[in-house]
């Protein structure tokens, strides 16, 4: 569906941009409006993570025949970017102090920035070559 195509491109681009932004200065203060369209706003990152994950999941479910192969990488990128944004929101709002290998891997700046660049690149390729088979 064309709606999921454009929504996937938009979500992958925004998630990639949000992941490449520095999260040391996340804006979670109450001085501003509770929701602003900024990559530093935790509420925006939460909503973007939810929308990106759901869009990637629906993109996987909506493809039935050969275009599935062309939508596989952008859909998995959307799901991955959404999960990283959701985990980033959880890591910044939780008060638990447990440290695990998965948590240290997901919260590393290098991992998030690399995935953000990957997500933007996949979105650009998916926009330029909509019928291309990505394997």
Cα separation of the termini: 20 Å
Radius of gyration: 15 Å
Low-confidence stretches: none
What is the total tally of β strands?
0
Whole-number tally of structural domains? 1
Mean pLDDT: 78
Strand content: under 5%
Largest sheet: none
User: What structural category arises from helix and sheet content?
Assistant: mainly alpha
Secondary structure: helix percent = 55-70%
Overall, the morphology is: elongated
| N-to-C SSE string, H for helix and E for strand | HHHHH
Quick structural gist:
With 135 residues, the chain is an all-alpha fold.
Describe this structure in words.
By secondary structure, the chain is mostly helical. The protein has one domain (2-24, 34-128). The protein is 69% helix and 0% strand. It is elongated.
């Amino acid at each position: 569906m064309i709606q999921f195509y454009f929504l996937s491109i938009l979500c992958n681009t925004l998630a990639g941009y949000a992941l490449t932004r520095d999260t040391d200065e996340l804006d979670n203060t109450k001085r501003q409006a509770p929701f602003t369209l900024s990559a530093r706003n935790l509420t925006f990152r939460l909503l973007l993570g939810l929308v990106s994950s759901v869009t990637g999941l629906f993109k996987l479910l909506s493809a039935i025949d050969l275009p599935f192969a062309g939508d596989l990488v952008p859909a998995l990128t959307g799901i991955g970017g959404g999960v990283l944004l959701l985990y980033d929101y959880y890591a910044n709002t939780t008060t638990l102090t447990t440290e695990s290998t998965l948590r240290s891997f997901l919260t590393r700046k290098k991992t998030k920035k690399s995935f953000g660049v990957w997500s933007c690149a996949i979105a650009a390729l998916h926009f330029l070559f909509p019928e291309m088979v990505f394997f």
